[in-house]
Each structure stands twice: as structure tokens, then as C-alpha cells.
Design a protein that fits this description.
The chain is mainly α and 75 residues long. It has a domain at 31-58. It contains 4 helices and no strands.
């Protein structure tokens, strides 16, 4: 199902004019779905990266806390 949806969205051509997109609800919905999927994938990748960093660097002093403490101490 997900593969079929991906293939459908991947076949959207960018040759639609502005009027076609806004007056054809199917094209508009497919473009909206494609943008939503891209944003969802981006957020999922960012959350995955944060989880991987949290697993490999469990000590919080190696992260942002150390930077803010160091910056506060230097002022």
C-alpha cells in the first residue's frame, strides 16, 4: 500500500499550470500529500538522528549543557 502510494505521488508531473492545480482537486490533494510525506520523512530522520546521538552519547555533559556551562563560565 505504501509503495503504491509512493509510486503514485512520484509520478506527479510538475508541468501543471497554476490554474490547473487549484481547479483540479485531485492534483491539489496529491501535491499536498506529497509535501506532507516529505515533511514527515524529514522530521522522522531528525528524530532518528537525535535518538542515535542520545544512545551513543548518553552523558549530557557532552551535549548542549556543556556548551552553555562553558559559555556562562567564560562571561
Amino acid at each position: 500500500m505504501a509503495k503504491r502510494l509512493y509510486l503514485l505521488l512520484a509520478n506527479i508531473q510538475c508541468s501543471h499550470s497554476y490554474v490547473e492545480v487549484w481547479h483540479n482537486p485531485n492534483v491539489f490533494l496529491l501535491l499536498t500529500a506529497r509535501v506532507a510525506l516529505l515533511l514527515t520523512a524529514r522530521v522522522a530522520l531528525l528524530l532518528t538522528a537525535r535518538a542515535v546521538v542520545a544512545v551513543h552519547f548518553p552523558n549530557p555533559s557532552w551535549g548542549r549543557a556543556a556548551f552553555t556551562r562553558g559559555r556562562a563560565a567564560s562571561t
